[in-house]
Amino acid sequence: MNKTKDGTKINIGNVQEFGEKVGKEITVNGETVAVFKLSNGKFKAIENRCPHKGGPLSRGIVSGEHVFCPLHDWKVCLSSGNVEEPDEGCVKTYKVESEDDVVYIYI
Ligand code: FES
């Protein structure tokens, strides 16, 4: 663990452990986070709790930089954490990146 300006940098596994466009639920520092590897190879991480009724966003369908909640299909932006209109709300986002085949989250 390393403290940085973005938070504590924590190793959450190897790049190969993350399927493309498939969410993975992880728990770090008591927070439940949904981590996604996009088709462009970038990683995104958001709070794993839909602002509507708490649906597990890690099990949603990924499309581009968005995920659709598996319960009632709200569309959440993986970069901003904002819910797309006409619905409203937002989830917490986390910085996540890969470095030499290892994925790190800042929390
Ligand atoms: S709980 Fe996510 S859309 Fe309803």
The main β sheet shows up as: 7 strands, antiparallel
Structural class: mainly beta
Domains (count): 1
Strand percentage: over 45%
Global mean pLDDT: 96
CATH architecture: 3-layer Sandwich
Rounded to an integer in angstroms, the radius of gyration calculated over CA atoms is: 13 Å
Q: Which kinds of small molecule does this entry bind, naming each only once?
A: FE2/S2 (inorganic) cluster
Describe the protein's topology.
Layout: E1 2-4, E2 7-14, E3 24-28, E4 31-37, E5 43-47, E6 61-63, E7 66-68, E8 75-77, E9 93-99, E10 102-106
Antiparallel strand pairs: 1-2, 2-10, 3-4, 4-5, 5-9, 6-7, 7-8, 9-10
Residues 50, 52-55, 69, 71-72, 74 line the site of FE2/S2 (inorganic) cluster.
Write structural notes for this entry.
The protein is an all-beta fold. The relative contact order is 0.25. A hairpin with a 2-residue loop joins strand 3 and strand 4. It has a seven-stranded antiparallel sheet, with no helix packed on it. It has a single domain (2-106), classed as 3-layer Sandwich (Rieske Iron-sulfur Protein), CATH 2.102.10.10. The mean pLDDT is 96. Helices cover 0% and strands 46% of the residues. The protein starts with a strand and ends with a strand. It has strands at 2-4, 7-14, 24-28, 31-37, 43-47, 61-63, 66-68, 75-77, 93-99, 102-106. Residues 50, 52-55, 69, 71-72, 74 line the site of FE2/S2 (inorganic) cluster.
Observed structural traits:
107 residues, Rieske Iron-sulfur Protein, seven-stranded antiparallel beta sheet, three-stranded antiparallel beta sheet
